[in-house]
Amino acid sequence: MKERYDELVSILNKANYEYHVLDNPTITDQEYDKYLRELIDLEIKHPEYVTPDSPTNKIGGEVIEGFNKVRHEIPMLSLSNVFNESEIIEFDNRIKKEGFNPSYVCELKIDGLSVSLKYENGYFKSAATRGDGVVGEDITHNVKTIKSIPLKINKDIDIEVRGEIFMSKKTLEELNKKRKENGEPLLQNCRNAAAGSIRQLDSKIAKERKLDAFIYHLPNPEEYGIKSHLEALEFMKDLGFKTNPNNRLVSDVNGILDFITEKGSIREELPYDIDGVVIKVNDLNTQKLLGFTAKYPKWATAYKFPATEVLTKLTDIIFTVGRTGQITPNAVLEPVIVQGSTIRRATLHNEQYVLDKDLKIGDIVSIRKAGDVIPEVVKSLKERRTGKEKPFKMIKNCPICNSELVLSKSGIDYFCKNDLCPKRNIESLIHYVERKAMNIDGLGERIIEDFYNMGIITTVIDIYNLYTKKQELTELEGFGEKSISNLLESIEKSKENSLERLIFALGIKGIGEKNAKILAKKYKNIHELENASIDELNSIKDIGPILACNIVEYFNDVNNLSLINNLEELGINVNYNGEETVENDNFKDKRFVVTGTLSNYSRDEIKNIIELNGGISVDSVSKKTDVVIVGENPGSKYDKAKDLGITIWDEQTLESMLK
Ligand code: IVH
């Protein structure tokens, strides 16, 4: 019986692979269903038979309470962008200047969301989103349901692979057809639809959304003795992953340009959305030598297809209120699809911008959008005017609280000065919890707005009292126990933030993330900052007279002072914690020795960096040393490290480990 079970697993997995990866089915749907039925019956009778690669895993139904965070051992980087031929040539030239003459692999840039997949001993173990590149979210339960992602690969190895989850155009169309029939809002485009499906707690939904995935990156090629990206693609394909059939090795920049022209012309016919072409140096050793910039690999780039301009009608101009009370005019547009997403709004920045473009309500305007870039109104078509268009008029009162607007000193922007204006308060709360500010997870814009309107959170103080409203939260739709406890945990954790986050979060006019850090470093404690004079602040490099005035003005307001005191009473840290240490598993608790001269770091700097990342810097090499960082002209420590078989990092490797 168990033999039959194993046979069924193997038949069904093979059928799955042929259908979803190779696009070449060898059994009919009826046969597949018959085998699956037989397998399910066996699993019911003999639950002890069930293997981790059983195709019933793909049925979905697992419901999770919230998304767990996952740290990527090797960060998931994104790519630099190029937009035209000369930028592509420049990319190639930059590599040539470093002494290489590489061939490249050109790939389609799939418009979905990136994913990291982990396998242990050949079995699918877990999947995570990219997140901020360092920490993503565990989406194992949903990824399990994706038919083209194998639950068991063809070698019993541990491996991580990365790729793109996407939804086909046809699936989106079918899905939207159903949603329309049910009166549900339509999904904007394939990427949003894929991302939305992956963010479901119930994996049945992801399963129904028929997601698909292409695998395009092997983060640890050296572990498998792989020397080129093309080989890596081949290796992953042989393991049973779906790689994109359009991938192509080209020998020079002309090959890249041909690939782009060719794929640009078949773009519309492809069954999935692409937003460009990815170009990668093929040789992995060259990749390693080229290394990374602060944000991107230097050995790859993404060519983005050009912006598209479309015409639509400017049906209205409405005004929004920001955190500081700033009023922004926004274009309300007759919805148009530009590059797969529906555009309904575009910012018009300020009164002068609208006057300069001579926009009138009712005008036909051209809209431009490129990739993820915010859509922009390029111009109005004066020749299409009928005479019925209405001129633009700046408002005089706040659209939310009706208080009289005040023109800024620069004469450009209008402000609502009412501290009690609900919209200003909501925006301030959104700013306070933002990732770069107090970094409170689980309080997105929508939730803040809802909580504000329900009276659950009306001031930042309420955030810290949220734990008293646990019961109330449980009764709200979309709040599971796990998400509530994650939220409360994140709030609690935020209390320990270093001072710079608090300064930024308070929203003092003109004080961004960088200045907040400068102030925190200098004053070390919020009360010291409170007492700083204009002159003193003005003398700080980067602050200047206007910001100095803003800071003093902020702390002269008794409401602000009492807010700070209340926060302190609630246990919010108001001190500078020193440089933020990053939990970097590449360094954490490891012993490092540095030898030779590094081009970008002095000895002290590198020691500091090792320690900031959780490592231990030691002077001599021994068996206990975990990593030796080797620069130019290394000494005998290098030889000793080699003799002892200790991991050796060159400067590029070091930099990639830091990302
Ligand atoms: S390679 C270090 N290849 O584009 C290598 N990315 O702008 C990182 N993407 O975050 C990625 N298709 O989500 C790569 N064939 C492809 C891709 C691709 C789509 C996405 C991916 C990445 C983003 C970069």
Written overview of the protein:
- This protein is an alpha+beta fold and 659 residues long.
- It has five domains: 2-57, Helix Hairpins (Orthogonal Bundle), CATH 1.10.287; 69-81 and 101-304, DNA ligase/mRNA capping enzyme (D-amino Acid Aminotransferase, Chain A, domain 1), CATH 3.30.470; 309-415, OB fold (Dihydrolipoamide Acetyltransferase, E2P) (Beta Barrel); 422-569, Orthogonal Bundle (DNA polymerase, domain 1); 591-658, 3-Layer(aba) Sandwich (Rossmann fold), CATH 3.40.50.
- Helix content is 37%, strand content 19%.
- It has 25 helices and 24 strands.
- The strands form seven sheets. Strands 2-11-10-3-9 form a five-stranded mixed β-sheet. Strands 14-13-12-16-17 form a five-stranded antiparallel β-sheet.
- Helix 17 packs across helix 18 (513-523).
- The chain starts with a helix and ends with a helix.
- Bound molecules: 2-(butylsulfanyl)adenosine.
- 2-(butylsulfanyl)adenosine is lined by residues 77-79, 107, 109-110, 114, 164, 216-217, 278, 297, 300, 302.
How many strand segments?
24
Structural class: alpha+beta
Uncertain runs with pLDDT below 50, 5 residues or more? none
Radius of gyration: 28 Å
Instruction: Please report the distance between the alpha carbons of the first and last residues.
Output: 51 Å
Indicate the multimeric state.
single chain
* Molecules bound to protein: 2-(butylsulfanyl)adenosine
Average pLDDT rating: 92
Please report the number of helical segments.
25
Strand order across the largest sheet:
2-11-10-3-9
CATH topology of the largest domain: D-amino Acid Aminotransferase, Chain A, domain 1
> How does CATH name the architecture of the largest domain?
2-Layer Sandwich
